[in-house]
Amino acid sequence: FYWTSEHNAARFETSAATVQLPYTLCSFDYFSHFFSPSLQMFLAALSFAYFSKALSGSYMKSTITQLERRFDIPSYLIGVIDGSFEMGNLLVIAFVSYFGAKLHRPKIIAMGCVLMSLGTFLIAMPHFIIGRFIISGCRPCLFPKLPTDLRELKTVASLSARCCERESSVSMWAYVFLGNVLRGIGETPVQPLGISYIDDYARPENAALYIGCVQTISIIGPVIGYLLGSLCAKIYVDIGYVDMETITITPGDARWVGAWWLGYLIAGTITLTSAVPFWFLPKSLPVPVEKHDASCTPEQTRFIKDSPSAMEHKFRPEEPTNFRQMAKEFVPALKSLLGSPVYIIYLCVTIIQFNSLIGMVTYKPKYIEQHYGQSASKANFLMGMINIPAVALGMFSGGVVMKKFKLGIMGAAKFAFGTSLLGYFLSLFFLAMGCDNAKVAGITMSYTGVEGLSYHERALFSECNSGCLCSGKDWDPVCGENGITYVSACLAGCTSATGTGRNTVFGQCRCLALTKAGSRYTNLTASLGHCPIRDSCDRMFPYFLFLSVITSFIISLGGTPGFVLLIRCIKPELKSLALGVHTLATRTLAGIPAPIYFGAIIDTTCLKWGNTKCGGRGACRIYNTTAYRMVYLGLTLGLRTVAFFLCILGFALLQRYVRQEEKTALANGDVEVESDSLRKEEGNSVLHCDKFVCALNCRETRL
Fold first, then answer.
1. Element (H, E) at 623
2. CB 474 within 8 A of CB 621
3. CA angle 580, 384, 57 (to 5 degrees)
4. CA gap 194, 106 in Å, rounded
5. The dihedral of CA 462, 467, 468, 474: what is its sign?
6. Is 0.85 surpassed by the pTM of this model?
């Protein structure tokens, strides 16, 4: 073997007659040069790329309510937008994973980062096209000041028609959809090409550490993403273009839209920056001596390389790939993989679990907003500072437990199942941590104070507001002195107003007098916004947070053992294919549909829909909180229940698989066991070449 340099890449060339060159693979001089500074740079660049893609992905999750309100779309369409990332990813994942590995991997990753940044910028683009956000339709007045003559009625109708013409153009949310698809396409090469690059050019004993470091750093991304979402949700969408003194709503209002676009500009810039280092990295690096055996002589090394069954994937053959041969090998390999009952059950369980997890995480900030009356900013802050760190700590702790107790296949399966089951039982307590519906006249209670749900618009009208010619489509809530929220000042029967902006106070609100509590007041005033949630619900919220952190940590404990189980329950030569099929299945059958059907089911609990400028149905303004809690938590827990029943069948199949493996190992003897350990790539560098050569000779003799 000898060393040559071409295009900054390391190549190994053999000569049957001579062994020339400065550094032989087994020499100490070569060993001292194994760790290229380029590998350090690649690790840093890949960590930054992982961080940036995780940041933009979590920021997308944090803005779902902002996008819903800004574009006046229901939750299921938000689910379509959220799932579009997986759609883009699936479009090119097979092509990139296969052909990208044969090209300049760092530059392919760089191009992916550039595409991700362009997609992120495209998501923000509608803000600069759609115009200013008008809170109450197209009228400049922020409470229903009704026309008193025909001329004023015609003016309002004319304004509505012009606004409808503007809205009838291309739906702006389509740009968000396309931008997220582009993000998915750009993200595709980062993980498969980045991890394979590390695995090829790092020491075998260090590769896992480096990959773990990259994954650990990427956990910071969601934390920063949710915190960025919290910050931007506090800032009004048109900050810098409007006088904030004229804005009558607060971040806690159901109509508030934060500066969602600002975070995408920041995330896009960070992602674009992460592409820069990859342009300066070489196509390949020196292969470490540990990829071979340090005790080998040159003749033994040549023997190992030429052997048809010995570590061929650690070398870079220069001859072109035989596509016909690969196609012939692919179908039997896929048939063998899908013919494994243990793998199929594992795949079904993880698909169901991922449906539950993705749907729950996507709408959890919205659940906190709607159920506990928190602002979008606070919900995102809590997700970033409490839930995400708990998940990260749980996954790390699960790996520590695996190593400390040296869990095997059955041990890993039992540990993952036990933690998931414990988290499931704890999650049942969420069903009891409910809040009553907000008191809204005409929706959750009558104007006389009798509680009862109403889904009909006519329930918004009463004798106290019959002469006001109010619109039942408006949503400009005011809080009466009696503690009841009214859909608008007009529907509250208010006839006067004092103050400006957020300090506006409405007087002589006749509908307040219909309730027992309202009869004690003489002024009958109402202020802008919802009435505060009940104290009992406010006291319940900290317990919800505490239980949420505990369950997130416990369930995450089984994440690492569950992944290890996937790798160990299949043949070593099918490992890469199994991981690819697993990724494809979970993204296709969980990542795409889960946000859509979760959103559609949540939409069924809406009590009052907003209206678009053309009169169509917009975003939901208020939900039936009891029904929301039942369908959101019920669907999450129901899916996990189905997964547990499948786990019982999986345990039986796994036990049979383990017994068969043990019998096979005993029957084949020590030589076969030694050969199997070599094919699994675990501890290849510490085995003596003479034993390996002997094992090869023995096996070839038997064949």
1. strand 617-623
2. no
3. 40
4. 8
5. positive
6. no
